[in-house]
Structure formats: C-alpha cells, structure tokens
Amino acid sequence: MKKGLLLLTCLAILSGCWDRTELKELGIAVGVAIDKDADTGNYIFSSLMLKPASFSTQSNSTTRPFEEVVTNGKTIFEAIRKVNLIFDRKGFYGHNKIILISEELAKEGILPILDAFQRGKEFREYVYICIVKNAAASEILASSTNAATILPAIHLRNLVDHTDIQFNAAKIDLLNFYKQVLASGINPVVGVLEFEKDRFSKKHVKISGGGVFNKDKLVGYLNEKETRGYRWGKGEVKTAAISVPSPVNEERFDTVEVKNVKSKIKPTIKGDEISFIISVNGEGIIAEQQSIATFESQAERLDYSRKIEGKMKKIIEKEIKMAMEKAQKKLKSDILGFGNALNQEDPKTWNKVKKDWKERFTEVPYTVSVNFSVKTTGLMRGPFQSEY
Predict the structure, then answer these.
(1) In the chain, which end has fewer C-beta atoms inside a 10 angstrom radius, N or C?
(2) What is the pLDDT of residue 5?
(3) Helix (H, G, I), strand (E, B) or coil at 313
C-alpha cells in the first residue's frame, strides 16, 4: 500500500513538469517597443532580449548584453510569435520592465495593443507604460546614453521609478492604466519619454511631463508644471524639491523638501449644480537656504516658516489650476477623476450626468484648498556665513 502511494506521488510530480521550458531555452525580454509600419499599417514589435553569455566572466567585455529583435504583424500576438522565427530562444516576457508605445499609435488607441499582453498574461500587470514623443519607440528602447546600467530597458525603468523623488513627470503601470480606462469619470495620464540635447549637443533620453488620454486615445500632453499640478491634485507626491523665492531676499531661493502630500476631491451638489473642491494637505522642511540671514529668536524663525508656507500654498494652487485649465479647456479629459469622485459620493446623480460628462466636465466649477506646513527649518539660526 505504501509503495503504491509513493509511486502515485512520484508520477504526479513528474507529470507536473514534463512540459516545462528550461531556462537555457528562454529568451528573456527586458523591454519592448511598438511602432507602426507606415507602408503596411502593421505593428512593428521590438524586443530587447538578454544574451546570458555576455554576462559570463569568460566572454568579451565589449559584447553587447542584449539583442534587439524586431518583428511585425497585423496583431501584437502575431508579432510576438514571429520572434521565434528569427531568434533562437523562446520569447519570455514575464520579466519585462517597460512597454513603449509610439505617439502615432497612442493617438489611434492602445487597448487593441495591450489586449495581447493582458489576455495572454504574457506581461505582468506592474510593468510601466510610456509614450514616446517625437521619435520611434524602438529608437528610445535601444538608447543607452546617460545610463549607469548596461541594459537600456533597465535604464528607462529606473527613469520612471525616479518620478517618486521628482514629480515633473507622470507614471503609470499596466494594471492602473486598465483600471482608469475602464472606469467611469476618470482618464489616465502616462509617462512620456523623448530625446533631449544637452549643451554639448549630446542626445539623451528624458522622462518629462505626461501624456493625457481620453479613454485609450492620446489627446495631448501636460508640460512639467502642469504635470506637477496633476500630481498635487492626485496626491501622488512622496517627496520633491521645490525652490521658492526667499522671504528674506527675493533675488535668492530657498528649497523646500516636500515630505508628505495627501489630496481629496469632494463634489458638492446643489440641485442641478455640481461643483468640486480639490483639497491638498502637505508638509515639508527647509532643505536649503541661499539667503544670508540669521534668526535670533523663535518668533523670527516662526515668521520665516509661515512665509515659506504661504509661498508653497500659492505654488501648489497655481500648478493645480494650470493642469485643470489644460484638462478642461484644451484636452477635455477628466484627469483628476471628478466624475469618479461624484460616482462614489452620489451614484444617483452620476447616473444622470454620465452620458454627457465629457462636455459637462469642461465647464464644471471647482475650488482649490491648500494647507502646507513647514515642520522644521532644518537650520537653527540661518545659513552658514563667513564671519569676515
């Protein structure tokens, strides 16, 4: 009896892995880019595939550690399968770090593109999506300028990650893009990658601003200040550095390190009139002082902090209004989710207005309420200064 049970257990284990794919047979993709073939209208699918041999200590250090594999197809899934016709390993996308989509395709709508990734579970849901502006997506994907890592896709993923500590750019992953596209009363804003030239005319990749969608179609862009306004309104600021004119000397700047931001959108309904309040609460510390001043008393330090708080409130309010002006008047896209907030607060009212919300949103009134506190100056008596 025991022997029979042992035999059945062994068979079950063996049968569970008979068709597994060995690691040495996989081509691990770390980044993909999708462009459109101008002649055929097909998708051009570019994959960065790892070359494990190039990481070996026995290999030539100049060997490029990845292979850029380019295929095309009428659908994304067709293009993915064609990778196996020209690359000697089976494509595996479970460790893919980023999906780049050309501006041209984004304007046409990207749900048909993402369907293959989501339906077939080829890609994990936390992979970042970015729009490529003024360049081919494949060109950005293979660029390695200003990169500390030897893999361009990891470099791009890191640029998106860094929006946690600077918020001039937007970011979104596959899961949250789907959530916002399929939800009512909210539209997504996607990270944007493009080439930029430095003062030596050297071209490098930069993440900047945000690509605004109406459902799954790209309708325009937010610049850096507008993107900051969007992120203030969404409460998507973990930490940031904001420079403000010094209360002591307006020709110099002091820097506030933002430590925490929370926001809330509250609808107000009075009969047929609907309005919204965008409430933002934040705090930070003084990280740098250019102005030469010494605060001799607690009252002087407190007065200085209150003036900095006032300047921060004005900046936050101004940038939120810049984002809303662009969203309402030009792009006509509910990026902060006014409609979604209304749906959560009063589903009955939302059901009455959701059919014409796109038009109604462009005229809906709102107010911005900001509370920002400086917890500590980080400097007890003022900046360092010479005694001579």
Answers:
(1) C
(2) 41
(3) helix
